[in-house]
Amino acid sequence: MSANMIGLILNLVLLAAVGFGFLFGALRGAKKSGIRTIWLVVFLGVALLVSPLISKALINIQISPTEGTIGQFIEAQIMNIPEIADIYADNAALQELVAGLPAALINLAVFMVLVPVAMGISYIAYAINKAFLKNKKKNQIEEKVYTVKDGHPVVVNNPKPKKYRLWGGVIGAIGGFVICFCLFLPINGTVHTIKQYIAPTASAETTESTFEYTELSKLITENLGQDVVNIINAVDGTVLSKVSGVLNVDLALYDAISTTKVNGETITLRKELNTLATVGETVLHIQNTTDESGNINFQNLDFDKLETTVDAVFDSGLVKLVGIELLQSYLDQAVNGTLIEDLVSSGKLDQKTAGYAKELLTQIWASLQAGDGKLATHLHNDCVALLGMAKAGIESGLVGEITTTQNLTIKQWFTLAESCLYGTHENSKVANHNYLEDIIDYLFESSSLKAAIVGGINIGLNEAKSVLEATLANQGVDTTTNPVEFDCLTQDNIDWDAVSATFLHLLEDVIVAADFALENNLDEGSINIKTLINHDKFETAALALANALDELQTSPLVTNTAGGENLLNQALDEFARVEKFGKFVDFTALKNTDWNAEITALLQVAQFAKPAITAQNIKTFAFKNLDYAALETNNTIENLFSGNIANAIKLDWIKNDKLYTTASAKNKELLDIILADTTKLADLKASASALATAGANFGTTGIIEIFMQGATAEKMNQTATALVAQTDDKTLLKTGLDTIFEDTKLCQAFVWALNNMIVPTLEQTAGDMGKIDVSTPEKLAAWKASASDFETAITALLEVYLSLDIQTFEAITGDAKSILKLLLNDEFETTNAAKIGAALDKLCNTTTLATTEHKQIAKQYLYNALKDFEDVNAAAILANDENLWTTEFTNLAPSLILLNSTYADSTQTTTLLDMVLAGQSDELIDTQGFWTLSTTQIEDLATALSQSTLFAPAALKFAESLQTLLPI
């Protein structure tokens, strides 16, 4: 029979049912037709309710002595299939499904059979009801009914009621339609269900060739055959099918008929078919994105379709009933069975890795089973989360690059991953989209992934514990009585919302820091401080690292441990026990560090030093231009040396290090000064603060440039001017020196510098002078007490220097002669002479400059410098006359200009100073040379020399010469 004939027959049946219903309804009238229809609907409803009971009963009816019941027959057929026989035998839920599911299919046929039965019973009920009403009418007392005729009331006996035959026909037609609707409900419902899978995606135009079919519709059509498809289309095109579809009640009743409950789980035939179709469409979609080599083009995957499929699968009654139990069985076997052992036996896993895999699977399995009956929920969430992560990874272009790109360096891989995760890669679907955020969001929605994170951290902790215990055992620690302790994580203790909120920021900060490190090749151990500090991302990267450390130490993954201990703090405690780790750093001091504050202080130091570090030539760098004030304004030194880092860095190891053992005696002396009563960097806070203050005072004057670049006249003038400049009634020199002298270590280091740098330089021209002695607290205290004399003397000398406005220092060789000649010029005044004298007296008599030999360095230097001149009484310098130099310069001042005067004799032209220092005082008075001086000059010189203690020998010779020339 052709499909068109079937459609025609169904239409005729409907027409006949509606037509006969109208006819019989019209004959009965509206009231009787209504009663008849009510009984019909009631018994059709009863048929709907009892059909499942009948269906289940039919399943248990024995088909034959050999094949048993329908359920047994189906079970026997399943057991004949080797691929699923074992699964079926071990799965109670599958057995219950096989026993109960056929009832839903049989129920469709049973309902069709019960429809005519319901018609018959309803007719019987109607007949009984009709007879009952007729008898009741006969027993009723007749009542008189009046009417008006010719203006008079007339009694009307037994009037016949109106039957409303048209309405009766309509009700009868509705009854006929209901009968057809229920009779063909299983057929129409099945047709509508199948039709949605084989219908074209676009409406038909004129010919069948213009239809556009999906891959699934083509597949179903091919398997059903064209004849069956034609029949389905024909049935779908009948009037009954169209009207049922418009009323939208056929599928609802169809679902009611084809639904059964197995072990408390509702299974609806059409819903399961829809799920199967959704899965089929997705499988075909994946196949269409796969090339001939079997490689999937992930970029073309429709993740909305995949997610819809996952939702449909986990909403399926069959999956909930059987699939979850099957999956649970497989997972349980993987965790508790021999899967891991088999992989080890086959050589695919080593024993250690297998142990970790077992532990990780156990963690994941426990998380999936958490909560009564929530396995399906956890699996559903996990699948959605994995799809979301995969979608972000694929749309970012990262997955595609990983599968196609090879032989890249770590730096290249990192750069590639970063561009993909932030949507700047050319293959990223959405430009500048934060795919990393998408991945993190989905990551913490998955129970399995969270369990994997916890398991991974615990595995890492156990591995670290093993390594540390082995290391401690090697250094002689009994780890049985004092074991390494790490408080492991449990998934339930962790505040995952807090983790999710901070994890993205943690990763982004790590990426910023890693990006900087890789860009500067720090992964290769190549460190160029100058390049790093000058890099425009240096500060950003450092702060990102600080933020990452702050976020890490407060992360619930570190703090929400089983015992409430902070994992990072525990790790620091354990690392501190290892000698090779704890030699340089006290890790326990790094616990609960404010990394942002610590690194900010380091950055401030780096910012201060950056101009000097990044200068092209440090020898020509202007240190006075550094921002010394910023160190104090930002409280940088206080913050740096008060922080955990400074308290963690050890210094006492230096004395056992090669740095100390191979150092020279004088450098060991300096290290001893620094390390005295010092075990960690924080102990140097006071000295560092004082040094910063002194550095700010001296650095701004240009002293550092003089030491590094040499003393030119220009630098000397600028530096001297700056040193004596008044700032709040206190010179920079005095402020700087006071700061140094007030701190014991700096004071000792300053003396060390004098003993090892200044004194040796003086000794090159003046001979042995000894060293300043601050070896005892009493001597150090004496130094500090008399330091003001030293400051006063230096200040006075600088003021004299500035008043002279000397432009060149190239003539200075360090000996007394060259220095004196430099001072003796036309600008030398009596006030300057007094200042120089007072300054020298201060230097010569202060205990600040006392040496171990109880010598005064200034006195000794001046004595050594002048002791070889026969016309100078050098011994007077070592006497205890505290005003020697003041007196000498004051008395000599009027005549000092003469010492720089030119003297010429028959053989040479020289200065008086040269002659005096050369012991030629007796030659000053001769026939030719004498007359180069005026009488007044001779008198002034004679007076000055006669009053001088230092130049007494010269005065004597001068007097003898005068007696020879002018006998008295």
Kindly describe this structure.
By secondary structure, the protein is mostly helical. The radius of gyration is 55 Å and the shape is rod-shaped. Strand 9 (902-904) and strand 10 (909-911) form a beta hairpin. Helices cover 67% and strands 3% of the residues. It has a two-stranded antiparallel ribbon with strand order 1-2. A two-stranded antiparallel sheet has the order 3-4. Strands 5-6 form a two-stranded antiparallel ribbon. It contains 47 helices and ten strands.
Secondary structure: number of strands: 10
Our measurement of the CA-to-CA distance between the termini, rounded to an integer number of angstroms, reads 173 Å
Strand order of the largest sheet: 1-2
| Mean pLDDT rating | 78
Structural class of the helices, strands and pairings?
mainly alpha
Proportion of helical residues: 55-70%
| Low-pLDDT sequence parts | none
Number of helices: 47
Cα shape: rod-shaped
The radius of gyration is: 55 Å
**Biggest pleated sheet:** 2 strands, antiparallel
Q: Note the beta-strand portion.
A: under 5%
Could you give the topology of this structure?
Layout: H1 3-28, H2 30-59, E1 62-64, E2 68-69, H3 70-79, H4 82-90, H5 92-138, E3 145-149, E4 152-156, H6 165-183, H7 185-198, H8 215-224, H9 226-236, H10 239-247, H11 250-257, E5 259-262, E6 265-268, H12 269-288, H13 303-315, H14 317-336, H15 339-345, H16 351-369, H17 375-395, H18 398-404, H19 410-421, H20 435-443, H21 447-474, H22 496-519, H23 529-534, H24 538-554, H25 556-559, H26 567-576, H27 579-582, H28 595-613, H29 628-633, H30 636-642, H31 644-648, H32 658-661, H33 665-675, H34 685-699, H35 703-709, H36 713-724, E7 726-727, E8 730-731, H37 732-742, H38 744-766, H39 777-804, H40 816-823, H41 830-845, H42 857-866, H43 884-899, E9 902-904, E10 909-911, H44 912-917, H45 927-930, H46 935-947, H47 952-965
Antiparallel strand pairs: 1-2, 3-4, 5-6, 7-8, 9-10
Helix pairs in contact: 1-2, 1-6, 1-9, 2-5, 2-6, 3-5, 7-9, 7-11, 12-13, 13-17, 14-16, 15-16, 16-21, 17-20, 19-22, 22-24, 24-28, 28-30, 30-34, 33-38, 34-37, 36-39, 37-39, 38-42, 39-41, 41-42, 41-43, 43-46, 46-47
